[in-house]
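[[Local backbone shapes]]
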Amino acid sequence: MDPNKRPDDMVRITTPELAQAFIDEQVAAIREQVGDKKVLLALSGGVDSSVVAALLIKAIGKQLICVHVNHGLMRKGESEQVIDVFQNQMDANLIYVDATDRFLDLLAGVDEPEAKRHIIGEEFIKVFDEEAAKLEGISFLGQGTIYPDILESQDGVKAHHNVGGLPEEMQFELVEPVKLLFKDEVRVVGRELGLPESMVERQPFPGPGLGVRCTGAITRDRLNALREADAIVREEIDAAGLKVWQYFCVVPDYRATGVRDGKRAYEWPCIIRCVDTIDVMTATVPRLDWDLLERMTNRILAEVPGICRVCYELSPKPIATVEWE
């Protein structure tokens, strides 16, 4: 049987009972595979890597070493949540690397989207490689690969391994406990493992993070404005109890004229982007309540320095894509 092919008769994990049975099965399998050796895991704080981390902690405890790299392009509070959940609550063996200055210095003046993506991805690999080189006795690499990753890899859509092009000299055996699960099943398992709902339901987030939502050449002040505005949008939509697939802000690299405190203000616009989708191949824009849009607008204009206009994007996919860059 192909270990990377989901059996046709595999029961979908839809209940806590099925999730617990899966967890018990994987804990036993991980212990058999790893033995008394150590596992290294790049922990982004996303759903897949978080569930794998929780599974590995349950199975092998301190034999797991998690590395969380903060590239300075995380959403507000995300790195803090990773530290709180895994280090403070789960007592994980967590290495936190604040590489904000390192990434933002490299990105200074770079405005081409693919160049930004390349710099962020390449530098992440370097940081992770440097941290791995400091450790001894690592035999395994944990990964949050899920079944759609395998399918897309087979179809030639994207590379399979989530860590993304790790150096060839890092010869580790892979531990991929959720590789036959779909995203909704991973979420059910995460809940059963005790991960907070905010982490289990974390929205899709591009690898380059806010780097592709702070369009054009990234500046620290505009990035900070984006982070604060994005937090307000997420907070208000969550408080309204809406089920929207993805919602975020974009702050482009041009300014608009406004009036603040009776004086001319030449500041950035903020664009709110919300989409609903089933397969990500097409996406529609939800009709948000006007009062909600007005509340988000008023808060952003009052609370976020540097932003003088707020827009709501109406473009579906296609022709538009979900992300701007």
